[in-house]
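Budget justification aside, the reviewers requested a transparent look at the raw inputs and outputs of the sequence design task funded under Objective 1. We therefore reproduce one unedited record. The lines immediately below are the structure tokens for a 106-residue chain.
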């Protein structure tokens, strides 16, 4: 707060408060889909390399993908989710697998 004098000599209080609004970005889940060709070992490798999952968590997600048809690899802001999904697809294509990753708003 700042004190200032107006024309009549009286002191007036001026309040300069700016409200900051922090907008958190929308989050997206990266979902990996089951297929008949991609090996379980490769899925675990992708989960560890691209999504930085520890071995036990990667295996748990892989089993979810295998038995339920789809699994959540992680939740990220859109740009990061898109990049990770692209990295997983590229790694799969280079290894000859048709691995499919999609994004879903969290």
């Amino acid at each position: 707060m700042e004190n200032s004098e107006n024309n009549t000599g009286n002191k007036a209080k001026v309040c300069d408060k700016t409200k900051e609004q922090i907008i958190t970005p929308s989050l997206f889940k990266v979902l990996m889909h089951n297929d008949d060709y991609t090996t379980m070992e490769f899925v675990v490798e992708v989960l560890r390399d691209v999504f930085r999952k520890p071995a036990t968590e990667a295996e748990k997600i892989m089993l979810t993908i295998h038995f339920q048809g789809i699994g959540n690899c992680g939740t990220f802001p859109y740009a990061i989710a898109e990049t990770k999904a692209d990295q997983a697809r590229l790694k799969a294509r280079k290894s000859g697998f048709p691995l499919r990753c999609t994004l879903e708003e969290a």
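The chain has one domain: 21-105. The chain has a mean pLDDT of 90. Computational costs for records of this kind are itemized in the attached budget.
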